[in-house]
């Protein structure tokens, strides 16, 4: 994992872990994976799942997923033109 991703995980994880201060780090990660709907082995939880789940916890209900919002076009015609390379 790259240094900036480590910093991002720590920054996102801190407020969540403070809310659940009675849990160990492993328990916090297991809880996050469970909340995100991950059913596999805890050792195989992808980093992205933890990062995006923590980001979505801070996002108001109904807001678009971070990372998708930048590619979203409200106007269908503008989206078609952009897809064809005509902006």
TrEMBL record:
Top-level taxonomic group: Bacteria
Name of the featured protein: DUF1040 family protein
InterPro entries, alphabetized: DUF1040 (IPR009383), YihD_sf (IPR038134)
Organism for this UniProt entry: Motilimonas pumila
Pfam families referenced in this protein's UniProt entry, alphabetically: DUF1040
């Amino acid at each position: 994992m790259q240094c900036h991703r480590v910093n991002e995980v720590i920054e996102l994880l801190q407020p969540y872990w403070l809310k659940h201060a009675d849990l160990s780090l492993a328990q916090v990660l297991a809880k996050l994976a469970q909340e995100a709907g991950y059913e596999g082995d805890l050792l195989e939880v992808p980093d992205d799942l933890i990062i995006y789940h923590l980001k979505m916890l801070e996002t108001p209900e109904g807001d678009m997923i971070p990372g998708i919002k930048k590619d979203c076009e409200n106007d269908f015609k503008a989206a078609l033109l952009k897809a064809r390379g005509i902006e």
